[in-house]
Structure formats: structure tokens, C-alpha cells
Amino acid sequence: MHISVETRKPAVVLLSGGLDSATTLAIASQDYVVYAMSFRYGQRHSIELECAARIAIAAGVTLHRIVDIDLRGTGGSALTDEIDVPKDRLQSEIESGIPVTYVPARNTIFLSYALGWAEVLGSQDIFIGINALDYSGYPDCRPEYVEAFERMANLATKAGVEGRLRLEIHAPLIAMTKADIIRTGLLLGVDYSLTHSCYDPAPGGLACGRCDSCQLRLRGFREAGLADPIRYAPRE
Question: In the chain, what are the domain boundaries?
């Protein structure tokens, strides 16, 4: 049984425009008044932000903010620097080590912005679509990380120190496979044709189908017994 609209509390949801964040948004929307936050952080392309805007409209969020920051200043990632995005890696390679597509401190920065907005909104709930099973080895996608950030959030905010709010970081997908995430989203009415997951899109915005993110996404749809509704660039 879901909470009535009149009594729903506000929640901040980090929305990247990808499959996972769209599903997380749908989960949060069941019980919260949703405020979505996306970032123009110097990433290689703007397609994911265009998708985030469409997803937010389709979900009927109360407000969607796109925040401008520039992580190119620190660099160190194939998503923000002049570094080639790895392609055609084996599953064993994807599952071992931290890849060059890791953006240093990205989730910590994003969650910090979400935390500030949540405090202004009087919200104690922040949602993030990270996953610790079908992911590329990122250290800021683990349960230990979420727990540590939540402890910090309650130590570092006026709302937490005064005891007015007990801030909570929700990561509802963290123990789910990609196939289960997709099945859950479909049950909640997520239109995955609006999403984008590719790290290095081809000209025209088509997903490459070869980067780690595309491979994990495609495997998730295969394991769910479904076809991915987005378009991929033809193999050369």
C-alpha cells in the first residue's frame, strides 16, 4: 500500500538519464514527492542529460534541476579526460579492477549536492541508483560507501546535528542484478527507450554497444528475456 499524495514526504533523486537512475526514480515516486537532480559535469556527451530531462517529464517529478560543475578540472577519467573508453572487454575483465571510466569522487560530489538540496527542502531522503552486482568495479557503488556517507551526512548538516531530520541515503538497486532492475522498472512503468547508458556514443547519439556500460545493459536485457528498446550503432 503506497502513501497518499497528501502525506508524501519530499525526496531528492539523483537522475543521470541511465537505466538504473530511471528505475530508482520510479521506485522513489511510489512513496515520495520527487525532486530530481542531474549534473553537467564535463562528461563526454550531453545525451544522458537530454534523456534525464525526458525521464523527469515522463515521471512527473515536482522539479528537475541540472547542476553545472566541471570535473574536467581534476580529470583522471575516460569520461572527463582525453582517455580512450575501453571497448569489447570480456566479462572477466569488466568484473576485475577499477576501470578508467571511474570518475574520481563523482558519487561523493553528487551526493553532497543532493544532501544540500535535501536540507533546504526539509527532506531526509536521498535516492541514488548505484549497484554492487552488475557494475564496473567502482568503489563508490558499494554498501559500505552508502553507509559511510549516510553517517557523514548526519554529522555534517544542521538538520542532522539539531536532530530535526535523520538523513537517509536510499540505494534500492544495490543488491539487484541488471535483469532484476529491468524487470522491476517495467513493472513500475519505466520506458527504457528514454534512457541512455553508453559511455562513448557513436555519431548521431547511437549507443556503441561495446563499452562496459553497454555490455552490462545488453546482458541485463538478454537475461530478462527482453529486447533493449534503444538503438545501437552497427558493428564495423
Answer: 5-223
Q: What value does the mean pLDDT take over residues 159-188?
A: 93
Q: What is the mean pLDDT of residues 177-199?
A: 97
The residue that leads in pLDDT, 3 or 185, is 185
pLDDT of residue 216: 94
Pair type for strands 125-127 and 9-14: parallel
Confidence of residue 163 (pLDDT cuts 50, 70, 90): confident
Is 80 exceeded by the pLDDT of residue 1? no
* Position 61, amino acid: V
| Angle 22-124-36 from CA coordinates, rounded to 5° | 30
CA distances from 12 to 33, 69, 104, 171 (A): 9, 18, 22, 12
Report the topology of domain 5-223: Rossmann fold (3.40.50)
Sign of CA dihedral 64, 205, 186, 221: negative
3-state secondary structure the chain: CCCCHHHCEEEEEECCCCHHHHHHHHHHHCCEEEEEEEEECCCCCCHHHHHHHHHHHHHCCCEEEEEECCHHHCCCCCCCCCCCCCECCCHHHHCCCCCCCCCCCHHHHHHHHHHHHHHHHCCCEEECCCCCCCCCCCHHHCHHHHHHHHHHHHHHCHHHHHCCCCCEEECCCCCCCHHHHHHHHHHCCCCHHHCCCCCCCCCCCCECCCEHHHHHHHHHHHHCCCCCCCCECCCC
Task: Provide the residue count of the chain.
Answer: 236
